[in-house]
Specification:
The complex is a heterodimer of chains A (about 150) and B (about 450).
Chain A (H helix, E strand, L loop, with lengths): L4 H12 L5 E5 L3 E7 L5 E7 L23 E5 L4 E4 L15 E2 L4 E7 L2 E6 L4 E6 L6 E2 L4 E7 L1
Antiparallel strand pairs in A: 1-2, 2-3, 4-11, 5-7, 5-10, 6-9, 7-8, 9-11
Chain B lengths: L3 E4 L3 H13 L3 E7 L6 H5 L2 E6 L10 H10 L4 E3 L9 H10 L2 E2 L4 H8 L1 H10 L7 E4 L2 H11 L3 E9 L2 E6 L5 H16 L4 E5 L5 E10 L3 E13 L2 E7 L6 H18 L2 E11 L4 E8 L6 H8 L3 H9 L14 E8 L1 E2 L5 E2 L2 E2 L2 E6 L3 E5 L6 E2 L6 E9 L2 H13 L2 E3 L5 H9 L1 H5 L6 H10 L1
Parallel strand pairs in B: 1-2, 1-4, 2-3, 4-5
Antiparallel strand pairs in B: 6-9, 7-8, 7-9, 10-11, 10-13, 11-12, 12-15, 13-14, 15-22, 16-17, 18-21, 19-23, 20-22
Helix pairs in contact in B: 3-4, 4-5, 12-13
The chains are: A mainly beta (about 150), B alpha+beta (about 450).
């Protein structure tokens, strides 16, 4: 059986009248720790046991190491998310190989948690390589593009 | 009778639906993307069905994948939660074709609510006040309309809603460009380029009325104030709406019920209003034909379980207004994985510590515990902390302690923002307008 909100309330009722400051309960399905908080109330920490039927989590893909040649500057993913080369589906890409960019030129967007975050070039120069495919998922810090600094 | 329920959602609302289903003796099957196979709702559900890769378009937004999961697991009903497919007529239709109960409004009602202009026309026909405005098809029409209704004006996508697809025009000279952009964006985002224009009301409160319909009768479950928003996204909600004159409150509730009756509404729905309480006026904004994130504040003041009510009306039970009574005041705080210290930058990752408040009149709805993953593919909601008190003041006192006791590590959150709001005199006074939060936060940051 699973732990419900009412179960926690009942346990706290019992603890309120006790001298204990902490209670740990462990079953096959969950672990629960209740602690007396500074405010006079209680805090809860739960840990639900993995279901036997649930498959293992998918390990994140390892991205291949990218080396930088001298004179080249990398544009890194500022956060984890989905890489897009254009402001919306069907629109022209922000930049192509050979595009001239300023430090604040937007070269891509990364969609994270339903928010679109623009990625500035970060340096002045010419786009030399686009290292990630459109709509590909990228980890934080992944090299998105390389540009020849000027 | 529903025996086995497919939950076509994730996160805290999936946990929430599982909890009620189990208390009713209904078996649960979670439809999960690859990113959520080891999530807390996947651990709580009786079974898990893989519906596709993490990208929502290929999993939680795929009608085909959801129906296949329901049929494969022999479910007799689907609960869509909120967001994703919850208001898509296509899912309701596919359920009907597959002989599966859709826990929500009818296909026709979803189409009426999803078309924001049609929803507005139904409101007008039912006698509800709407903000002056109209549909526009050309730049000339737009210019004439804006001259008529006055500035500033708000361009809204017919296919939008929930704060999406809106653009503000402050200067008539920008109108052509803004409308063209709004149409292009609406086409890209909703597959529907139609837009309409309304006068923008600078100072208003967002008050909504919770409806429950059984297809014949429609009742209200009180109101909620959701004026504390950032970029049209709600942060704090309370029930009832504070400091609302009783006469205005009654008119809002009656208007919402009239709207629901005009639709012959079935299921749980919310009618949103813009309220100008200084003038005692209100305007219909839109109808949300689903359970909402903020439903627990209504549960706290009514003692009802709204997921159980949804299941009951889907099974054909009848409802009565006399069965509903209200007690006390409740406030909900949305804890998001957004770094309040860095302009609310999203913060996906792995949770390394999750300590939540517990105790009398404190409720925490969450899918977060130590080791939980917060994937970048979905929204940033981590938990909802709901407090209840005999009065609004008592609820606020309880909230201060509860939020002080809450600690989440591994991902950045907006907890500090909530604590700051609780100390603010305007918030504590009650009844701030939707333009309050951005000003408040700008001062805090400085």
């Amino acid at each position: 059986m699973n732990l419900t909100h009412d179960d926690v309330q009942e346990i706290i009722q019992l603890l309120n009248n006790s001298s204990f400051d902490e209670l740990k309960i462990e079953t096959d399905r969950f672990k629960l720790t209740l602690r007396r908080a500074g405010s006079g109330g209680w805090t809860q920490e739960t840990q639900t046991a993995p279901s036997e039927r649930a498959a293992a989590a998918i390990a994140p893909e390892k991205s291949a190491a990218v080396t930088l040649e001298p004179g080249m500057v990398a544009v890194h993913a500022p956060l984890v998310g989905t890489f897009y080369r254009a402001p919306k589906p069907g629109a022209e890409p922000f930049v192509e190989v050979g595009s001239q960019v300023e430090e604040d030129t937007v070269v891509a967007i990364i969609e994270t948690m339903k928010l679109m975050n623009s990625v500035p070039s970060g340096a002045r120069g010419t786009i030399a390589e686009i290292c990630v495919n459109n709509a590909e998922f990228v980890e934080h810090g992944r090299i998105l593009m390389k540009l020849k600094a000027s | 009778m529903i025996r086995r329920l497919l939950i076509a959602n994730r996160g805290e609302i999936a946990c929430r639906i599982i909890r009620t289903a189990h208390s009713l003796g209904i078996e649960t099957v979670l439809a999960a993307s690859d990113a959520d196979l080891d999530s807390v709702p996947a651990r709580l559900a009786d079974r898990v069905v893989k519906i596709g890769p993490p990208q929502p378009a290929k999993s939680y937004l795929s009608v085909g994948a959801i129906i296949a999961a329901a049929e494969g697991a022999r479910c007799d009903a689907i609960h869509p939660g909120y967001g994703f497919l919850s208001e898509k007529a296509a899912l309701a239709r596919a359920c009907r074709d597959a002989g599966v109960i859709f826990i929500g409004a009818t296909e026709e009602q979803l189409l009426s609510a999803g078309d924001k202009w049609r929803a507005r026309e139904i409101a007008t026909a039912a006698g509800l006040p709407v903000v002056p405005g109209g549909m526009i098809h050309s730049a000339e029409e737009a210019r004439a309309l804006i001259a008529d209704i006055g500035m500033p004006a708000l361009v809204k996508a017919v296919g939008g809603g929930g704060g999406r697809g809106m653009k503000l025009i402050r200067d008539a000279a920008d109108a052509d460009a803004t409308i063209a952009l709004a149409m292009a964006e609406a086409d890209a985002a909703f597959g529907d380029a139609r837009v309409y224009v309304e006068r923008f009301i600078e100072r208003g409160r967002h008050v909504e009325v919770q409806l429950l319909g059984d297809g014949t009768n429609v009742i209200h479950l009180g109101d909620r104030d959701c004026s504390i928003q950032r970029r049209y996204q709600k942060l704090i909600e309370e029930a009832p709406a504070p400091n609302l004159p009783p006469a205005l409150q009654s008119r809002l509730r009656e208007a919402a019920v009239a709207y629901g009756k005009a639709l012959g509404y079935r299921g749980l729905g919310t009618v949103e209003f813009l309220v100008d309480d200084a003038r005692g006026e209100f305007y219909f904004l839109e109808m949300n034909a689903r359970i909402q994130v903020e439903h627990p504040v209504t549960e706290a003041i009514t003692g009802l379980d709204l997921v159980a009510e949804q299941i009951a009306v889907a099974e054909g039970r009848r409802i009565k207004q006399d069965d509903v009574a209200f007690a006390g005041h409740a406030i909900e705080f949305r804890i998001n994985a957004e770094d309040a210290g860095h302009d609310f930058r999203p913060s996906p990752g792995t949770v390394t510590s999750a300590v939540f408040p517990a105790g009398e009149s404190i409720r925490v709805d969450t899918h977060i515990e130590v080791g939980a993953s917060v994937p970048p593919f979905y929204d940033s909601l981590l938990a909802k902390i709901i407090v209840h008190g005999a009065t609004r003041g008592a609820a606020i006192d309880r909230a201060r302690n509860a939020l002080a006791d809450c600690r989440i590590e591994g991902v950045a959150t907006n907890l500090a923002m909530h604590r700051a709001v609780l100390e603010d005199a305007a918030f504590r006074g009650g009844g701030v307008a939707t333009n309050w939060f951005p000003h408040f936060w700008a001062v805090i940051v400085r």
